[in-house]
């Protein structure tokens, strides 16, 4: 073992332990520390035995064990705990040392910490780490941002332990300034919510409308996973459908239908609302989890409010193909919306994001990994300034081909009373986005009618505002014009 460690890691929950093991397996020497130090000895004498991993029983010992510039990675619960550890580390570190936060931190906190630590001469990196416990051990997707001066120090470790795609391409690269890494990880999680909900809606339609069994749905997902929808989430959904409970019934059918969430999907939507980006699919996915959580109310409501009896008498194979197209088209919409959000955030915060590079970071290792991300990379290679993924020739052709089936599925869901919020709202976005004229002219008229909020005219140049005295009772005074 080297006399000084390459990196120290604080926080020995499963992600922290597995990242350390991953680093040690790749030849790095790592110091492990945890606030309750019995966890350190348990780890050192257990999973870390025989590897280039040393334990520290205090933060001082951790810092003393590190090669300069010191690199300390935090894998502690996002929020106050991160600030508390940073406060303790500051007096122990020297200028030029590096603190890395690898938790699911809310990006404004990372913005603040980068600036705070810069004042002290310490480089702060906030990095997304995705892939769950297995990814952490064998190759996660890593999305670092913050103090770019520190990147050359951290890069060899992170790119070495990250997942590799297309030969030896690491699913890790510098994302951008301040909280850009955590922002991109947050959008990843939002997209994860959307992908999961889309698969859930397909499952529900196949089960409730077409009447397929879990084993039959397993077969469908297995087929889908061989084509455009090839992804980690499709793969695990395929396996979940085939998994049997101890009594031989499909385990999935014995699980309570209330979804949990830790907040990253909600943050993505909050960011979208703040930036004025229509992130409808992820929004619906977050709200679908909220609605699922109101189990008692739903059970009571089901006794009072009824909908149509769902009946299926069509061609199963044809409907399943329509459904595949609907899921694929809605997935394109979701990623298109997520990328618009990143572009608007980059403008707002002055970040320089590489959109094709982000697709490659997500191409392997992370929860949303899929073949599809390779197509997104190609789209941004062709047109780095692409305004919306739906406008790329590959994706617009796919949407065109999927459109008829997508509409049939949306109509079937509506007519048969089966909630499919992401499939349906994505279609509304698609139709809205491709509409040269929306009814916002009436909306502006309404605003002007009741509040003198003014409107622009088609026959006048943009930026010229008009007010009409709609009733004859109002005056000519317009309210001030501003947009949030
Ligand atoms: C990942 C995941 C992970 C996330 C879980 C749970 O990229 O490895 O996104 O960061 O915490 O998926 O998220 P929810 O509890 O919000 O579903």
Description:
The protein has 484 residues and is α/β, with parallel strands linked by helices. It is built from 19 helices and nine strands. It has helices spanning 14-25, 38-44, 59-64, 80-89, 107-119, 132-138, 151-161, 180-210, 214-224, 232-242, 264-275, 280-293, 295-304, 316-349, 355-363, 372-382, 393-415, 421-433, 440-451; strands at residues 7-10, 30-33, 53-55, 71-74, 98-101, 123-130, 141-146, 164-165, 169-170. The strands form two sheets. The protein has a seven-stranded mixed beta sheet, sandwiched between helices. Strands 8-9 form a two-stranded antiparallel sheet. The chain is globular. The termini are far apart.
- Supply the helix-strand structural class: alpha/beta
Please provide the ordered H/E string of secondary-structure elements: EHEHEHEHEHEHEHEEHHHHHHHHHHHH
Total number of helical segments?
19
Give the low-confidence spans: none
Physical arrangement of strands within the biggest beta sheet: 3-2-1-4-5-6-7
Quaternary form = single chain
Q: What general form does the structure show?
A: globular
Small-molecule components bound: 6-phosphogluconic acid
Number of strands: 9
Average of pLDDT: 97
Beta fraction: 5-15%
Secondary structure elements and pairings:
Elements (H helix, E strand, L loop, with lengths): L6 E4 L3 H12 L4 E4 L4 H7 L8 E3 L3 H6 L6 E4 L5 H10 L8 E4 L5 H13 L3 E8 L1 H7 L2 E6 L4 H11 L2 E2 L3 E2 L9 H31 L3 H11 L7 H11 L21 H12 L4 H14 L1 H10 L11 H34 L5 H9 L8 H11 L10 H23 L5 H13 L6 H12 L33
């Amino acid at each position: 073992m080297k006399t000084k460690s390459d990196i120290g890691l604080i926080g020995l929950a499963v992600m922290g332990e597995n990242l350390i093991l991953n680093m040690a397996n790749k030849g790095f020497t790592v110091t492990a520390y945890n606030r309750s130090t019995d966890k350190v000895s348990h780890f050192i004498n257990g999973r870390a035995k025989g590897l280039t991993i040393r334990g520290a029983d205090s933060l001082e010992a951790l810092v003393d064990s590190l090669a300069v510039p010191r690199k300390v990675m935090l894998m502690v619960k996002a929020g106050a705990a991160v600030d508390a550890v940073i406060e303790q580390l500051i007096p122990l570190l020297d200028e030029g040392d590096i603190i890395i936060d690898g938790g699911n931190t809310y990006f404004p906190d990372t913005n603040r910490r980068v600036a705070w630590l810069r004042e002290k001469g310490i480089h702060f990196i906030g990095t997304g780490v995705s892939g769950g416990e297995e990814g952490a051990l064998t190759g996660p997707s890593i999305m670092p941002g913050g103090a770019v001066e520190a990147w050359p120090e951290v890069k060899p470790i992170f790119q070495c332990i990250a997942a590799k795609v297309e030969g030896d391409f690491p699913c890790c690269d510098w994302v951008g300034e301040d909280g850009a890494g955590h922002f991109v990880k947050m959008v990843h999680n939002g997209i994860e919510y959307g992908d999961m909900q889309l698969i859930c809606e397909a499952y529900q339609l196949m089960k409730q409308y077409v009447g397929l069994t879990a084993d039959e749905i397993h077969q469908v997902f297995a087929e889908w996973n061989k084509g455009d929808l090839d992804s980690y989430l499709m793969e695990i959904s395929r396996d979940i459908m085939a998994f049997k409970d101890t009594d031989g019934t499909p385990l999935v059918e014995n699980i309570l239908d209330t979804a949990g969430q830790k907040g990253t999907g909600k943050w993505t939507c909050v960011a979208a609302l703040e930036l004025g980006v229509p992130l409808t699919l992820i929004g619906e996915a977050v709200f679908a989890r909220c609605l699922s959580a109101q189990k008692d109310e739903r059970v009571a409501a089901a006794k009072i409010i009824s909908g149509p009896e769902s009946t299926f008498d069509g061609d199963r194979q044809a409907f399943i193909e329509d459904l595949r197209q609907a899921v694929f088209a809605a997935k394109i919409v979701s990623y298109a919306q997520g990328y618009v959000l990143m572009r608007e955030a980059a403008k707002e915060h002055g970040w320089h994001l590489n959109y094709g590079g982000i697709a490659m970071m997500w191409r392997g290792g992370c929860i949303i990994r899929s073949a599809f991300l390779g197509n997104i990379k190609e789209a941004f290679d062709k047109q780095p300034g692409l305004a919306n993924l739906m406008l790329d020739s590959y994706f617009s052709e796919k949407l065109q081909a999927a459109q008829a089936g997508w509409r049939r599925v949306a109509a079937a869901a509506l007519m048969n009373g089966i909630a499919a919020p992401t499939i349906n709202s994505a279609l509304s976005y698609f139709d809205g986005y491709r509409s040269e004229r929306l009814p916002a002219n009436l909306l502006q008229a309404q605003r002007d009618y009741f509040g003198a909020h003014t409107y622009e005219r088609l026959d006048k140049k943009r930026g010229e505002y008009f007010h009409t005295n709609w009733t004859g009772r109002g005056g000519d005074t317009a309210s001030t014009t501003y947009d949030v």
